[in-house]
């Protein structure tokens, strides 16, 4: 918030403070009024606002601080990567680092799947287990920004998850797709192999879905992204998550949507098992 805007707010409401809590967050702490007990150590001069607002660093959070992170409730998104088992308290209180570290789920030897924790995903509001192996696999595009690097792809992932969870027209429990793919040739874990998604109305309980990040109406994704999704489907078969006799569909095959874009649709039409059975 700009200082000028903040000063204007100060005139009308109370509690608008100049400065920032970032120095405290950088130490792995949180700011609170020091009339409250801190179950670790207090530090002055690290928090915005009143001098009584001080930085509390919880002793048991040290493993997270050693990682260069801070502990927070994982219903919030993380600017870097999440780590479990580094913070005191509930299992939902997890360590969020400042920068993201690339972690593979290790699910597939033929393609890299960047884990939810790696891209700093928010905890889902709820989950529902899907019956596998699924008979159908659906292809989508996001119609949003394309990405060609780890950092630009994870920023897209956060934008899409926030949109699916917070936008008034969605308010879904989580990012809708099972997986997403960037033109960096990596798969990004969405709801993953075992959860019912919110991607293909009427078919979410019988199919998994991969969505290409970008808009592929007039041009197809690069070969790195296309090959990653082909490898993902093969990996799904080998893990028993996708039926060997699966049918591949574009979103438009089962809805009035233009998804996954004409140029991409023309590519997947040539892939194995395309519309191997009627939708
Ligand atoms: Zn779609």
UniProtKB/TrEMBL annotation:
Keyword Transmembrane: no
SMART domains xrefs: Ami_2 (SM00644), PGRP (SM00701)
Domain N-acetylmuramoyl-L-alanine amidase: 120-261
Sequence ranges assigned to domain Peptidoglycan recognition protein family in this UniProt record: 111-255
Record CDD domains: PGRP
Signal peptide limits: 1-19
Gene Ontology biological process: immune system process; peptidoglycan catabolic process
Any Pfam family the entry gives: Amidase_2
SUPFAM superfamilies: N-acetylmuramoyl-L-alanine amidase-like
PROSITE patterns per record: PROKAR_LIPOPROTEIN
Top-level taxon: Eukaryota
Sorted UniProt keywords: Immunity, Signal
GO molecular function, one term: zinc ion binding
Protein family membership: Belongs to the N-acetylmuramoyl-L-alanine amidase 2 family.
Name under which the protein is recorded: PGRP
Organism: Mytilus coruscus (Sea mussel)
Classification lineage: Eukaryota, Metazoa, Spiralia, Lophotrochozoa, Mollusca
């Amino acid at each position: 918030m700009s200082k000028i805007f903040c000063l204007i707010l100060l005139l009308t409401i109370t509690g608008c403070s100049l400065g920032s809590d970032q120095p405290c967050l950088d130490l792995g702490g949180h700011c609170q009024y020091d009339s409250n007990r801190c179950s670790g150590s207090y530090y002055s001069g690290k928090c915005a606002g009143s001098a009584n607002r001080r930085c509390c660093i919880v002793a048991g959070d040290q493993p997270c601080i050693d990682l260069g992170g801070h502990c927070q409730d994982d219903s919030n998104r993380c600017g870097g990567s999440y780590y479990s088992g580094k913070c005191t308290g509930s299992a939902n209180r997890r360590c969020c680092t400042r920068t993201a570290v690339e972690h593979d789920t290790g699910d597939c030897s033929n393609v890299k799947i960047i884990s939810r924790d790696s891209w700093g995903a928010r905890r889902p509001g709820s989950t529902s287990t899907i019956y596998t192996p699924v008979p159908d696999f659906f292809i989508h595009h996001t119609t949003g920004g394309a990405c060609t690097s780890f950092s630009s792809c994870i920023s897209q992932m956060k934008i899409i998850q926030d949109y699916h969870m917070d936008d008034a027209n969605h308010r879904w429990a989580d990012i809708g797709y099972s997986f997403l793919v960037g033109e960096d040739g990596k798969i990004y874990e969405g709801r993953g192999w075992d959860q019912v998604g919110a991607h293909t109305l009427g078919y979410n309980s019988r199919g998994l879905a991969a969505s290409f990040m970008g808009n592929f109406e007039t041009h197809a994704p690069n070969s790195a992204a296309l090959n990653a999704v082909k490898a993902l489907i093969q990996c799904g078969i080998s893990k028993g998550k996708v039926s060997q006799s699966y049918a591949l569909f574009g979103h438009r095959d089962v809805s009035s949507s233009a998804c996954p874009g004409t140029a991409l649709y023309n590519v997947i039409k040539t892939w194995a098992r395309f519309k191997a059975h009627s939708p």
